């Protein structure tokens, strides 16, 4: 049985081999933590974005879209706090010369305690069977109690150090916990120091006249600076939201785990503007709606959990992450934050413009509070792929690799295959292709044996294969093969569209969310 790490390595190479993700500028040996999406990857990514966009803008009468520029006036980032406070705490190991995020090293240590606790519980579960009382075991088993106490003590100390921005204490925790560098295996650490994550560039034609600007580290500020533009032109009444999908850039020092943490990535963000005092009610509403959106894909409800923040950003009064069980543990895919009125107030202060909303219901002007939902497209892409990747042994002993992608997200919806390249079968196959191609992404494949063609489509996650054989010319029926069960049905060509559309149409998914 392959370990999670081995499976993840196989998934990464599968992504390259089947046109999902390539290392960026690979012919020049690539660029660290930057990736290109191949022909199948871009289709999957676009389908994820479409699902999010439709769930936000079509299911809610009071949410509209925006596409703000990547470059913004530099004062934007002064107002948002990014120039002064957008930092990671970094520590170097003197022996390996490798740099790490201090908070990530400590969080990995917390995860080790969790693993030890879980190991003890799993062993006891096996031993006691159905009579096992996990709650009681946690409270009474001395070994488990010791692990829990040590974890809780570390957690409390870590949360305080992060909230106090105490870099010396972060280093002390690393030393006290005897955390070693994964590469050198030593504890020869430098002090912890802050590092700003924004990329800088210059705008202007001369060196003297150039203005220092930044590549945006998030898409949210483009929404905040356009609040009045959208509200007035759209005659929007509070509560209302503005949704945006776009690229963001962070000079991550510890970029890792494939597309999970990259320097150039894509975000899907929605800022929801509400009356002051109502923000926590809406925070709860958006937590539940966003979790439903994830679970509706059927990747497994048990793979999701909420993780409340230990350290709240200076502007927030509530924050939680939706975490997904990746091969390397539960990791954040989406954040939901109650940002108070910090952003709009800051932009009003720095721009000298009045950014308020007049509420006719209470006859009062105020600066709205904001609930943010922010999801990384690339992390979502990775979570979908991780849960879809399967290696199966068939009844005849043959192996197959299959991506059991949700059909609505699959890059290719159906592949049309003439059994042989003669006798009028390719012509008939192209007729069938013409029936479907205007509504969904279809492939045509006539190369190799039918078995090899099925395997190719399994590997990219195509839910349906349609085979045209000699009988088709007489009875106008084709063989429809289902990816997950490999079951084959004889189906009339006239019924093909309805059968496939029912499985791949996003409408059913959205109706369930509503």
What does this 3D model show about the protein?
It is a single chain. The chain is an alpha+beta fold and 514 residues long. Helices cover 40% and strands 25% of the residues. The strands form seven sheets. The chain has a seven-stranded mixed β-sheet. Strand 22 and strand 23 (488-492) form a beta hairpin. Helix 2 (39-57) crosses helix 13 (377-388).
Q: What is the percent of helical residues?
A: 40-55%
Total domain units: 3
- CATH level 1 name of the largest domain: Alpha Beta
CATH homologous superfamily title of the largest domain = Bira Bifunctional Protein, Domain 2
Which structural class do the helices and strands define? alpha+beta
| Strand fraction | 15-25%
Tell me which CATH architecture of the largest domain applies here: 2-Layer Sandwich
Q: Total number of β-strand segments?
A: 23
Globular, elongated, flat, extended or rod-shaped: what is the shape?
A: globular
The value of Rg in angstroms is 26 Å
- Secondary structure tally, helices: 18
Q: Strands of the largest sheet, in order across it? A: 3-9-10-16-13-12-11
- The biggest beta sheet, please? 7 strands, mixed
Low-pLDDT runs: none
Termini separation: 41 Å
On the 0 to 100 scale, the average pLDDT is: 91
Q: Could you tell me the CATH topology label of the largest domain.
A: BirA Bifunctional Protein, domain 2
């Amino acid at each position: 049985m392959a370990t999670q790490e081995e499976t993840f390595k196989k998934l990464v190479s599968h992504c390259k081999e089947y046109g999902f993700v390539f290392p960026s500028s690979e012919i020049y040996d690539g660029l660290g933590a930057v990736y290109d999406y191949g022909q199948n990857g871009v289709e999957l990514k676009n389908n994820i974005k479409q699902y999010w966009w439709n769930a936000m803008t079509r299911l809610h009468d009071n949410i509209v879209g925006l596409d703000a520029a990547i470059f913004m006036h530099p004062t934007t980032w002064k107002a948002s706090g990014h120039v002064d406070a957008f930092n990671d705490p970094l520590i170097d190991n003197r022996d390996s010369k490798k740099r790490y995020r201090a908070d990530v090293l400590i969080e990995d240590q917390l995860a080790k305690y969790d693993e030890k606790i879980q190991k003890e519980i799993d062993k006891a579960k096996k031993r006691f069977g159905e009579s096992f009382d996990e709650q009681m075991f946690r409270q009474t088993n001395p070994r488990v109690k010791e692990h829990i106490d040590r974890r809780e003590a570390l957690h409390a100390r870590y949360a305080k150090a992060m909230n106090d921005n105490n870099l010396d204490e972060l280093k002390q925790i690393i030393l006290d916990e005897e955390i070693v560098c994964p590469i050198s295996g030593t504890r020869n650490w430098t002090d912890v120091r802050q590092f700003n994550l924004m990329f800088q560039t210059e705008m202007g034609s001369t060196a003297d006249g150039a203005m220092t600007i930044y590549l945006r580290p998030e898409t949210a500020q483009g929404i905040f600076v356009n609040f009045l533009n959208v509200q007035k032109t759209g005659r929007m009444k509070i509560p209302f939201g503005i949704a945006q999908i776009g690229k963001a850039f962070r000079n991550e020092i510890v970029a890792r785990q494939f597309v999970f943490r990259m320097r150039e990535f894509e975000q899907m963000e929605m800022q929801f503007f509400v009356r002051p005092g109502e923000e926590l009610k809406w925070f709860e509403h958006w937590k539940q709606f966003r979790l439903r959106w994830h679970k509706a894909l059927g990747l497994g409800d048990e793979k999701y959990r909420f993780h409340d923040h230990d350290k709240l950003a200076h502007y927030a009064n509530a924050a939680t992450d939706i975490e997904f069980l990746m091969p390397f543990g539960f990791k954040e895919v989406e954040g939901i934050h109650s940002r108070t009125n910090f952003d709009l107030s800051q932009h009003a202060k720095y721009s000298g413009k009045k950014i308020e909303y007049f509420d006719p219901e209470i006859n009062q002007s105020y600066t709205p509070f904001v609930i943010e939902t922010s999801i990384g497209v690339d992390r979502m892409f990775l979570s979908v792929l991780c849960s879809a990747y399967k290696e199966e042994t068939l009844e005849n002993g043959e192996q197959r690799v299959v991506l059991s992608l949700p059909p609505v997200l699959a890059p290719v919806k159906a592949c049309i295959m003439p059994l042989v390249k003669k006798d009028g079968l390719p012509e008939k196959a192209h007729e069938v292709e013409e029936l479907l191609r205007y509504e969904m992404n279809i492939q045509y494949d006539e190369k190799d044996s039918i078995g090899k063609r099925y395997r190719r489509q399994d590997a990219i996650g195509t839910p349906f294969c349609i085979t045209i054989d000699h009988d088709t010319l007489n009875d106008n029926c084709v063989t429809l093969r289902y990816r997950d069960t490999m079951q084959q049905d004889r189906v009339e060509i006239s019924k093909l569209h309805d059968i496939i559309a029912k499985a791949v149409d996003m409408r059913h998914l959205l109706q369930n969310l509503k």
